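Narrative of accomplishments. A recurring question from our advisory board has been how the design workflow behaves on a single, concrete structure rather than in aggregate. To address it, we present the structure tokens for one chain from the evaluation set, followed by the sequence designed for it. No filtering or post-editing was applied between the two.
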């Protein structure tokens, strides 16, 4: 998180070059000097002085208005200050949460205006970085979940962010959460991966298929079988429209049939496997086609038996 210091300094330099230091009023100069002092204390490891000075920075920023650029930067620097303590203090996330929530609220208010106003760009990047830190901690509190949800909605709406880079970062977080067994949290993050790629490529582009399949895997691990089925149906339909390789399509259809069986939707599974057999017959390679048809025929027979029993009841 040390790069956050560099960002804030860059913001100050840009502001100074545009408006001219000599023309700034006393309040602005006091805020800038306090921010530089706080960052200097922080970089030297003088944490107590840094904290008290960052609090002073925020108090000075309040004079510029609740949604001002100065408040945005001050609040984020305080949140960063607490998050940088994560190795030394287990309560860092709780300490940073009020400041994180406030910047999310500011961004949401700005984005809700007509016409929408964008938060300071550097502030948005910092907000996203903080969200990644929160997700890694996976704090299971109502406040945490609400803040992350609001933050993600704001971030998705900001067109200047690189969708591919954000998706890449969120893939890593989802993988880390799944590794800790926090599958529901991983699903929430990976849903944003798909949203980012959808914003980049469109809702029906083949580039989404691999990530939809990954999302379905996390949904399966989280026992969200209804959502998993919807995700797999979407991936299958995209494959059909894009004329993807039949092996990719078959793999997705087999997963969809398995999901339907898990939900006890055996008749739906029969339809899916019957369609998969038709796809398999069109494939190339005698050995692959033979093995595929044999495996699907066995699964189809079992599903048909379950389907008949369901209809009887």
């Amino acid at each position: 998180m040390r790069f956050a210091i560099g960002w804030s300094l860059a913001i100050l330099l840009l502001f100074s070059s545009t408006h001219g230091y000599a023309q700034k009023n006393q309040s602005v100069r006091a805020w800038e000097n306090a921010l530089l002092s706080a960052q200097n204390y922080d970089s030297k490891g003088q944490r107590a002085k840094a904290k008290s000075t960052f609090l002073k920075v925020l108090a000075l920023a309040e004079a510029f208005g609740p949604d001002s650029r100065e408040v945005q930067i001050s609040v984020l620097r305080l949140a960063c200050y607490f998050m940088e303590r994560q190795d030394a203090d287990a309560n860092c996330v709780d300490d940073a949460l009020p400041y994180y929530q406030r910047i999310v609220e500011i961004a949401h208010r700005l984005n809700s205006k007509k016409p929408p106003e964008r938060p300071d760009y550097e502030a948005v990047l910092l907000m996203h970085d903080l969200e990644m830190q929160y997700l890694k901690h996976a704090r299971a509190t109502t406040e945490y979940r609400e803040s992350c949800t609001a933050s993600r909605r704001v971030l998705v709406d900001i067109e200047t962010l690189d969708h591919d880079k954000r998706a890449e970062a969120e893939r890593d977080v989802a993988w880390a959460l799944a590794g800790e067994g926090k599958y529901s949290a991983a699903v929430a993050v990976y849903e944003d991966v798909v949203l980012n790629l959808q914003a980049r490529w469109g809702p029906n582009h083949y580039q989404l298929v691999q990530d939809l399949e990954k999302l379905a895997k996390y949904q399966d691990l989280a026992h969200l079988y209804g959502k998993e089925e919807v995700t797999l149906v979407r991936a299958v339909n995209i494959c059909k429209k894009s004329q993807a390789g039949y092996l990719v399509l078959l793999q997705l259809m087999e997963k969809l049939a398995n999901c339907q069986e898990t939900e006890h939707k055996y008749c739906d599974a029969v339809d899916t496997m019957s369609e998969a057999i038709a796809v398999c017959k069109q494939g190339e390679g005698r050995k692959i086609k033979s093995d595929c048809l044999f495996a699907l025929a066995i699964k189809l027979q079992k599903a048909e038996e379950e389907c008949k029993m369901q209809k009887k009841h």
